[in-house]
Design goal:
The chain has six helices and five strands. It has two domains: 66 residues, Ribosomal protein L11, N-terminal domain, CATH 3.30.1550.10; 85 residues, Arc Repressor Mutant, subunit A (Orthogonal Bundle). A hairpin with a 5-residue loop joins β2 and β3. The strands form two sheets. A three-stranded antiparallel beta sheet has the order 1-2-3. It has a two-stranded parallel sheet with strand order 4-5. α4 packs across α5 and α5 packs antiparallel against α6. The longest helix has 15 residues. The protein is α+β, with helices and mostly antiparallel strands.
């Protein structure tokens, strides 16, 4: 069966029949609004963020499958912290402080996309992104927070 795959970056919960999806779906003769509504339903929890989606359409049966990625870790951090952007000079200028609970929430959102084997390792990956964004973790440099995690300081959260 021939299939068409459409990859796009859409606004979470706010995709429309306009670009980028509409013009790609139109020639496939599928129910565009049905697909747009399904995309919006699947991306609603990422409202206000750009979300990668992959739509695979079987051109014979017109059946479709939608896979939703997660926004980049940096976008999730900005959203969680309520800031517009990271620091231009992260070594000297800190823009926000992330709690361990917030780091854990982001790690759970991105669970399948992170490389760590355990939730604890995945949280350390989130902390790693904080380094380049000028974000402290639990009032510490993210690298120090990672060390503290290795030493068991945050075990009560896991």
């Amino acid at each position: 069966m021939p299939t068409e795959t459409i990859e796009a970056l859409v606004d979470g919960g706010e995709a429309t029949a306009g670009p980028p999806l509409g013009p790609e779906l139109g020639p496939l003769q599928v129910n565009i609004m049905e697909i747009i509504n399904a995309v919006n339903e699947k991306t609603a929890k990422f409202k206000g963020m750009k979300v990668p989606v992959v739509i695979t359409v079987d051109t014979g049966t017109k059946e479709y499958d939608i896979k939703v990625g997660t926004p980049p870790t940096s976008s999730l951090l900005l959203e969680k912290l309520g800031i517009d952007k990271g620091s231009g000079s992260p070594a000297t200028n800190k823009v926000a402080d992330l709690s361990i609970e917030q780091a854990k929430e982001i790690a759970e959102m991105k669970f399948d996309d992170l490389l760590g084997k355990s939730l604890k390792e995945k949280v350390k990956e989130i902390m790693g992104t904080c380094v380049s964004m000028g974000v402290t973790v639990d009032g510490k440099d993210p690298r120090d927070a990672q060390k503290a995690m290795d030493e068991g300081e945050y075990d009560k959260y896991f």
